[in-house]
Amino acid sequence: MKIATFNINGIKARLTALTDWLDEAQPDVVLCQEIKSVDEAFPREPFEDRGYNVETHGQKGFNGVAILSKHPLEDVVHGLPGDDTDEQARWIEATVTGERDAVRLCGLYLPNGNPAPGPKYDYKLAWMERLETRARALLADEMPAVMAGDYNVIPQPEDVHDPKAWEDDALYLPQTRAAFHRVLNLGFTDAFRARSAAPGQYSFWDYQANAWPRNKGIRIDHMLLSPQAADMLVDCRIDKEIRDREKPSDHVPVWIELDL
């Protein structure tokens, strides 16, 4: 089963870019972030015409996550548990079943947190605490689980073109990286790093300052696998080349293949 994460940076602006990639890559499931659309306005038809079931957790003009799946979506949950006052649409999860096993898929759009310090950074760290709590619960279920999306976290120096330039950024602050590694240390596997340790492999390039032509990128789109899911990992890749297309997102898809 081919499962992808893709921050599309606006479903209306990137609809053609997304559907073109779907037609080429043929993923079974896509976890989308930053759809920037309320649920009622999400353009379901182009995806349903391609055989995808669609679930969204949207918000007007900001954030928003979605799951596109060629398999039925079961036990869908909208929103990260732990704070009933949180109105930001950043989490969606569901179960899909392959030929032999089922997997719990969690799509997330972790807060950016800038400027730091400040209330936005406090929200980011609090959200990451809730993420860790949910991660513990997923492990306790002993079901294959994937937590994938735009984490807005640069885990290590190899994941950024110029670590020094990002020292004061919320994506790379020591507290951010420590919170991310606390989740990993529970027993999750960073799927991409399980397949490649090479530096200079990124999933995001800013629209400014010729970041893409100069490969001034960062790796912030991650797929974390529970031990049961990690045992099923066949491959993990970044589809870097689509960043060079017309009207691209500033992110590119990251995908795994699981032997399900």
> What is the global morphology?
globular
How much helix, percentage-wise, in residues?
Answer: 10-25%
Count of helix runs: 6
Rg over CA atoms: 17 Å
Query: Structural class, from helix and strand content?
Result: alpha+beta
How do the SSEs run, as a string of H and E?
EHEHEEEEEHEHEHEEEHEE
Taking the sheet with the most strands, its summary is: 6 strands, mixed
Adjacency order of strands in the biggest sheet: 3-4-2-1-14-13
Distance N to C terminus: 6 Å
What is the beta-strand fraction?
25-35%
Number of strands: 14
Characterization of the model:
The protein is an alpha+beta fold. Helices cover 22% and strands 27% of the residues. It has 6 helices and 14 strands. The protein has a 6-stranded mixed β-sheet with strand order 3-4-2-1-14-13. A 6-stranded mixed β-sheet has the order 5-6-7-8-12-9. Strands 10-11 form a two-stranded antiparallel ribbon. Strand 1 (2-7), helix 1 and strand 2 (29-33) form a beta-alpha-beta unit. Helix 3 runs parallel beside helix 4. The termini are close together.
SSE topology:
Blueprint: E1 2-7, H1 15-25, E2 29-33, H2 45-48, E3 53-57, E4 65-69, E5 74-78, E6 91-97, E7 102-109, H3 119-141, E8 145-150, H4 174-184, E9 189-190, H5 191-195, E10 204-205, E11 217-218, E12 221-225, H6 227-230, E13 233-238, E14 254-258
Parallel strand pairs: 1-2, 7-8
Antiparallel strand pairs: 1-14, 2-4, 3-4, 5-6, 6-7, 8-12, 9-12, 10-11, 13-14
Looking at this protein, list some descriptive labels.
single chain; 260 residues; alpha+beta; six-stranded mixed sheet; 6 helices; 14 strands
